[in-house]
User: What shape does this take?
Amino acid sequence: MESGQEGQQLQLRNLTDQDLIASEHFWTEELGFDMARNHMRRWHLVDPEGFFGIFLGDTLIATGAAVKQTSELFFIGSIGVRESHRGKGLCRQIINRLFERCPEGTFALFAVPECIQMYRKLGFEIVDNGTAYVYGGRAATLPSDNIKSAFRFEVVDSNKPELVRRLIEYDARLHGFERPIGTTLIDDDDGSTVVCSMEGSIVGFVRIASSKRDGGAFIGPLYADYSEVAYLLLEDILVRNRAQAEISVSIFVSSRGGFLAEKLKLELRDDYPKCCTNPDRIPTMEVDKIFAFDSTDFAIC
Assistant: This one.
């Protein structure tokens, strides 16, 4: 790679567990993006070979990841370059390295709008109805504690193996493939996942985690069979975590989920179109049941 300051060579390599600390600092403090507290770590546990960084000596200059969803499907996230090194092709170098993981594979990402032209040149196409809308801020209204519903709401944990099994099956049916949600949604010391059931069948679930920026509520994913269930799930998890929700709420909604953010009167901050290589190879998903995404990184939905 090209030389950096004082003749130092830029090095592109996998991120280690220790590097994740620098990567999280890079994104939250230098690039100004908020994220859930254990966001990078839980996805790094799933696919550590998919995380890369470019270093100048010991300094992290750029990052990028492609987390394996299936043997031929990868989701790209956390593509970012330090401002002092932008315009030097480092982003392309990282993406080309990610493509090397599976040259014939399918790669998807949520694109920052100003980078769409670059992604198109790299073979990505915009996916219809796949935009993530980023909302956040102080919620102007929060639900009361006296929610009454015919549905059953239950927190999932590893001590409830039958509920975990049914949740994995529900998630797989929506995505068209089984995801490692035990690692990404359940076995995490930050946050919790709530399942909604009706007559013994799961009809939706939602996760909450802590914002690295201020300790507020990071909501997502939120999947549900009906919009009514989606809203009840949001109410339930906010009531269970009211102190956290009173600090701030962040949520990345689909076009179906916009009403959830509007109910809380959150601020629309960004919108990121989903882009894919080989979009015809994406598994068939029940996209009408996706109200909020896990994040705009690493998860196909």
